[in-house]
Amino acid sequence: MMIWLLALILVASVAALGYRQGVIRVAFSFLGIIAGALLAVPLAGLVAKVLGMFGLKDPLMLWALAPVVAFIVISAAFKIGALPVHQKVDVYYKYHSGDLRLALWERLSRRLGLCLGVLNGVLYAVLLAFLIYVPSYATVQFESSDQDPKWLRWLSSLGRGLQSTGLDNVARSIDRTPDLNYRMVDMAALLYRNPLAEARVGSYPAFLMLAELPEFTEMSTDKGLLDPWHRQIPIMQLLETPRLVNIRNNPELLKTVWNTTAPDLEDFRAYLKTGRSARYDPIKVLGRWKFDVSAAVGAIRRTRPAMSSRDMQNLRRFMDAAFGKTGLIARPDHSVSLKNSPGLRLQTAAAAAASPDLQTFQGQWKDLDGKYALTFSGTEMPATVEGDRLTLKSDSLGMVFNRED
Length: 405
Description:
By secondary structure, the protein is of the alpha+beta class. It has 18 helices and eight strands. The protein has helices spanning 2-21, 23-39, 44-53, 59-95, 99-142, 150-165, 167-174, 179-193, 198-201, 214-217, 223-230, 235-238, 242-248, 251-261, 265-274, 293-303, 309-323, 348-351; strands at residues 287-291, 327-330, 335-341, 359-368, 371-376, 379-386, 389-393, 398-403. An eight-stranded antiparallel β-barrel has the order 1-2-3-4-5-6-7-8. The relative contact order is 0.07. The model is unreliable at 347-353 (pLDDT under 50).
């Protein structure tokens, strides 16, 4: 009911204004509405840069305000352009024609202005429905309690009003927002409503590179973010947590996250729900792997059955010190990192007494019909994956890894 009331008030007000202003100014306003609606989105990027120069940096605010500001500027330009035209016509009829023609012109101008005003009012009502529909698609899903800001609750209420009256169909008919944007909102709402899904986000193969960025490395242990998230505090309060503020204020990072998520959005949604990825599960080498010291020592023992107990104890102590923190990350872009490793080729007997320096090796992996080859610094090492165990072989050392959860 509120939506219909707003629409009727808007149409009636613009129609009355049209009757008062006359056909020329209302006609220019009509053209301004059409031009503004067509050019608002293409010019939004330029307007966003201008708003940024005035200190507005929040990407969400820029995304929301830039098209609106562009529309207002274009519409205002047409209204300003109408003034000299209206003035010339008005001067002509007042001072260069008779009273009868002046009276006839004023009556015609007002009546045509009223008709065009009704049309303008309808256009404004359609645009208003669109302006409510787009942000309310998100606010309805994120609304949580009376602690939400009044503007968010009010916008959500208007959005539900659009849906109940069927005016959301009108808004969708002129909506050119990519469907991907709405699916991204759905995904964000899913994560907000299910904070325990955070444990799976970092393990999704497409996000392995993102998880290594400084902004995300400690997110899984950041109580300043996780505790409020688990308590389901209002979304606007959650967005003000320090970690999310740092992410929001980094446009390049947001772009990277978007470009990483967009191609795999539906697969990612399925992964959050089931823990399975139709796209990445067949590539068994992908993921994070933790060095299994016990398995590696056992493998060496099997190749050296004559090793004494003392050498075995020394080997175990060395392996714990050298490989206790070693891990491997294989990513979808065929890059691989071996972290906190003392080397690729070790003479374990000679090295047992030393304290090795840990290094990180960057390399590439390739698929060899179900088996894999990992290359570090020109050294190619065959690898096999059986379930949650990865075995990497070199000339002098076999490395055994277990998949991290």
